[in-house]
Amino acid sequence: xxxxxxxxxxxxxxxxxxxxxxxxxxxxxxxxxxxxxxxxxxxxxxxxxxxxxxxxxxxxxxxxxxxxxxxxxxxxxxxxxxxxxxxxxxxxxxxxxxxxxxxxxxxxxxxxxxxxxxxxxxxxxxxxxxxxxxxxxxxxxxxxxxxxxxxxxxxxxxxxxxxxxxxxxxxxxxxxxxxxxxxxxxxxxxxxxxxxxxxxxxxxxxxxxxxxxxxxxxxxxxxxxxxxxxxxxxxxxxxxxxxxxxxxxxxxxxxxxxxxxxxxxxxxxxxxxxxxxxxxxxxxxxxxxxxxxxxxxxxxxxxxxxxxxxxxxxxxxxxxxxxxxxxxxxxxxxxxxxxxxxxxxxxxxxxxxxxxxxxxxxxxxxxx
Length: 368
Known about the structure:
The chain is of the alpha/beta class. The chain has 16 helices and nine strands. The protein folds into two domains: about 15-165 and about 245-365, P-loop containing nucleotide triphosphate hydrolases (Rossmann fold, 3-Layer(aba) Sandwich); about 165-245, no CATH class. Helix 3 packs across helix 6 and helix 8 packs antiparallel against helix 12 (about 230-245).
């Protein structure tokens, strides 16, 4: 049965909430507000930000330089029994190193990988690695014995879609011909390698001889050092993909009531459909509150004439902004994909800087 309009947004049956959207719409704020709301209601919540900006941890009063799970003090928030909130800012290299230490087949393999030149550059530099390490961290949180509820703040714009596609790309990489070839290279070749494989290996070898960079040998050593770990990466990538598609996972697209932001939100929803993922809600942040009563201002005998004129001028400007907002929201409502809820979060009127501010935003989130 459909809930009535303007009913509070319920998340009781969810286990993972993924917030995504373009930069500048307050995605991090909505993530933190939802996490705090859930914690106050009695859930045990872990909120993780993949966005490199430290705004989430700042709003929660935590240390941006600390990449471990940090508890948030809810003493003044009136949390129900059992409610707790922890926040984490992703450190991709730390996650990758921890995976190697935990899953390497031997101490010698662990030390060889951590000291490997290719691994050191790979774990620090590539965006795709950061995307997948975020999924590894998400899976670690989900598999923790005390896991209850997770809220995930993704990178802005198209990077969020790259992030959501990371498990599938990892599975495709581990099943690729390149990994098979490099794993066998340097030793006796086994299996049905084609002339194209041999030609590629010969070309890389020639490149090494000309440049002196030893790229082929380094990459071969890197791939061989991971021998015995590929199955584990594949298993966890499949588990992360399954988690994203779990019925208890809610993907929330965050937008604002502006024409271009509405268009971006709808593009995000379409892109998710192409990835066989489904947006569950579009949350419009910073919706303006109702305007003051113009007639009450005009008829007031307690407001000096000069102040009344300024108030009426300001009110006219606000009314014009509110009209543009209404046009954008009507367009979004008309184009809303089937099965996607439309949510509004009222504009706070200032930058959220405390738990109280985040809680006020959370309380304002309603179905449109």
